[in-house]
Amino acid sequence: MTDLYQSQRAMRQMRRQSMQRGVVAVLDVGSSKIACLVLRFDGSSRLSEDNSIGSLAGQSGFRVIGAATTRSRGVQFGEITAMQETERAIRTAVQAAQKMAEVRVDHVIACFSGANPRSYGLDAQVDLQGQVVTENEVARVLAACDVPEYGQGREVLHAQPVNFALDNRSGLSDPRGQLGQSLAVDMHMLTVDAAAVQNLVRCIKRCDLELAGIASSAYASGISALVEDEQELGAACVDMGGGSTSVSVFMKKHMIYTDAVRMGGDHVTSDISMGLGVPTAAAERIKTFCGGVHATGADDRDMIDIGGDTGDWEHDRRTVSRAELIGIMRPRVEEILEEVRARLDAAGFDQLPSQQIVLTGGSSQIMGLDGLASRILGQQVRLGRPLRVHGLPQSATGPGFSSAVGLSLFAANPQDEWWDFDMPNDRQSGGSIRRAVRWFKDNW
After folding, report:
1. DSSP SS3 for 226
2. Tally of domains within the chain
């Protein structure tokens, strides 16, 4: 615990330094693509030390001056499986973004999906004896949280205070400067497989880059694809990537739950490839241009050309009806959405005052997906694109860039975490743990 605590604090320090220099890169390491954005910060965005706890910045303060993507290699289910291939892909993306930005970048902030995320709800209370709440009292109440035994080989990726209560007043985002007798906190803690994080850290170091921050891509996607009202009132962001589908739940502008399904758009492509007997590249093309999940009568007559692989077009020429293609795609998309529904049910999503669901990520662009999703998930569903940020090229405004854009917002103004406070040494561990969403029913 201490190692990670120290390394997270060191990363936060490095992030501050890189922002003072004015340039930082964000890197979204996905299963189908690796995206890199280079951000330039102007003076107004330099980190003000008196940020209120957990406030998310608007888009002001930075502009995107370089952007590049490359096909991801060596990453499966959002986790690195072949170090050299991933290293080469990261180098390619970073170098191309640097070239466009005409500036060299030393520091990157990275996000990734997968790694078996698990959410915990922690809480604690301390006596104040009528004194004013300062940084020290916040540190003391965070340190008093009972940390569950989250198991060998796991690391804490995020540990964010999501609600403070002073005496009987709950729902405070920042209690500092106020008087009271007792201070309570609710915290969301996210743990992931340590090996997945360590591989990513090692891979970035091998690219001669310094890691100035690390985040869950489910969190980053939620920041950029959910509008402010959704983040405030309660919404889930479902980020459908190539190798995995991330689920995050937001409330009162904080992420309060996250999970991942180890399936994504690549599995749909693979089903098409096997079902039609075509190479993966052809299956991807057919999925993108002709695919869908909702068949109508016209789709029986709508024929799609699928060439074979001998190169002799006349000899190879085959056609398949669009209805048949939809018949191959739909079962897998339904399976992914059923898994998402199971995750949301486990989180107690139906207890939140608002239950908006936003689909984003590259694989959310399948025709008819929103209709199928609202049937399976039983809620209002909309398709979400990332927020517009200053200088973002048109090519990076699609749903596939939600994580990268969200990571830019996270870099500009991260929410407070455990490691931002000087924690007392008498930290406890092992103790009570609550379902990550449940406190909202009690407190708001």
Report:
1. coil
2. 1
